[in-house]
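Format notes (please read before filing issues)

Several people have asked whether sequences and structure tokens are stored in separate files. They are not. Every record keeps both together, in the order shown below: the sequence lines, then the token lines. Line labels are part of the format and must not be stripped during preprocessing.
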Amino acid sequence: MNIVCIAWGSLLWKPAPLKLASGWHPGGPRLPLEFVRKSDDSPEVALVLCEGARPMPTYWAYLDAPDLDAARAMLGEREKITPARPDWIGSIPPVGGARTDTRIAAWLAHMRVDAAVWTALPAKFDGQSGRVPTADEVVRALDRLPGDERAAAERYVRSTPPHIDTRYRRAIAARLGWHAERDAHVTRMR
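Then the structure lines:
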């Protein structure tokens, strides 16, 4: 079984402990993404799936995993997702309570790939899972961060590939000056 991981955020530049069997490739399924997840244990506002957001390009890489359960477990470990939240790891075919996605299923069929996993964390803001903040709320939250936390949040935004050009990213760039790094790149398959 060939299994891929679909990614768009920090997995691209910091995949460990995810074991990749290839580099990241452009041309993944276009998915609705936005900077709408403020986790309790991280200063960043993460880029996550957000229905209603504009579809953005994603990346994909083959995983070094013997089966779909191992791939899901590996991604869960990387994303610090507990087994109690199997719906926060998407997979096709859907197993163990995983979320599925028709856009990813269509892409897999087109690519002739057997299976895929992806991070399916919901929006979160002010400690409320599922709460989608406004762009103004995100900018204010980022602007209030002190020193090292602010630097980490800025690094996350700047490291996200520049062509993932969301409405919130534009607000962050306009108000905080956090523009995408021109040399941000993704490791390609050799």
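For reference, the curators noted about this record: The chain has one domain: 3-176. The chain is about 30% helix and 20% strand.
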